[in-house]
Amino acid sequence: MGALIPEVLRTERRFARLFVGQSLSVLGDRVSFVALPFAVLSIGGSAADVGLVTAAGLLPLLVFTLAGGVWADRMPRQWIMLASDLLRCAVQTAAAVLLLTGTARVGLLALLMAVFGVADAFFLPASTGLLPLLVPADRLREANALRGFVQSTGLVVGPALAGLLIAAVGPGGALAVDAASFAVSAAVLARLGTVDGTAATATAGGVDGGAERAERLGFLAELRVGWQQVRSRTWVWSGMLAIAVYHVVVLPSVFVLGPVLAEREWGGAGAWTVVVIAFGLGSIVGDVCSYRLKPARPMAVAAVAMAVASCQAAIIGSGAPVWVIAALEAVTGVGVSLCFVLWETSLQVHIPERVLSRVSSYDHLISVALMPLGLVLAGPLSDNLGVRPTLFGMTVLAVPAALTLLALPAVRHLPASLPSESESESGSGDGAGVGLGSAAEAVV
């Protein structure tokens, strides 16, 4: 039986506990993602109301993500995650009670989702920064692959579970299940105790526990330190730009134009569900590959994987039979998982631990802030140009943007592990060892 359990779960017990708690929470989130629109509709809301409630959960991410990154680098990250889980549990419990008692209103649900978004904004950077404190650097890729596996599995299992729950207990009952998942996650985080990184292998810049956290700059100055870490590494800022292009240009094909084309030409939601599930299965395969493969140049592989993933739009608009589109979308799912696991791991290995959450917050901000732009523009563009020309245009823009990463030596040559001490002290801005002491903080 032990051989069936990944080694990182057997050897890193605190990560194993966190993994179980977060796995249940992710499954609950997938249920909520499906249940929330039906919750709005169940109280007489319109499609516009569904958009309003969804946007209410997104806006706080744009406003508070950078603040979340600063606080996650100031305070114990597991306590920020714990507070976030407790708040999200309270929000989903309140929403469930309102729905189950027939007292829910669109405005109340929007307000609750806004609070949920604030909690999310603090949770995401803290979560990225916590992992290197629980897992040695040489196990980070495996840990991220397992986390990705849970996310991908949730894409397949979550909607099915949500459908069963909505049919059995209604949207309110489904949201209650999500609330329970946050309670479990909070209980696990509470049992972790104080995490200072002493059990983890040092990442770039070293893991130094609370000593360095005691010396604090002002809030804006700390944000500038995080930005210095982004712009001083070509592979980081170029990777963020490529990911932003994927979110703005490619994802609208999945969220907006794919369902439109399925409704018009494929026979409706059933055919689109087949494509979405196929993508989820491909993502699971990609996570398994990420766990087993050990590329010497992870960002180079991530760039190629993103180029493959960026073909999603053209595949959806290809006019091929649905089963062919589903099979090809599964291939892009492999690319998506490979890309993001290798990206997350590279950040955790090469960014100094004490600023990792701030760098992660810029990553989340760029992804989340620009995605609505693509979602808003996709519809009008397809109305003027046609759905298929728009989908092909998305691919023409996105694939070269991903491949451009390979033209950058900092991306092609970034190693999987830290350079030697002498290389770290050579002063290269694109290496792992950009100093964080007086040198980096002098920019503020």
Summarize the topology.
Elements (H helix, E strand, L loop, with lengths): L6 H5 L1 H30 L4 H28 L2 H24 L5 H29 L5 H53 L17 H4 L5 H13 L2 H33 L2 H24 L5 H12 L2 H5 L5 H29 L5 H30 L1 H18 L4 H4 L8 H4 L13 H4 L3
Describe what this molecule looks like in 3D.
Helix 4 (77-100) runs antiparallel to helix 5, helix 4 packs across helix 6 and helix 9 (234-266) runs antiparallel to helix 15 (387-404). This protein starts with 6 loop residues before the first helix and ends with a helix. It is built from 18 helices and no strands. The chain has two domains: 1-201, Growth Hormone, Chain: A; 216-444, Growth Hormone, Chain: A. The chain has helices at residues 7-11, 13-42, 47-74, 77-100, 106-134, 140-192, 210-213, 219-231, 234-266, 269-292, 298-309, 312-316, 322-350, 356-385, 387-404, 409-412, 421-424, 438-441. It is mainly alpha-helical and 444 residues long. It is found in: Cell membrane. This is MFS family arabinose efflux permease. The chain crosses the membrane at residues 50-72, 234-257, 269-286, 298-316, 322-343, 364-381, 387-408. It is a multi-pass membrane protein. It comes from Kitasatospora cineracea.
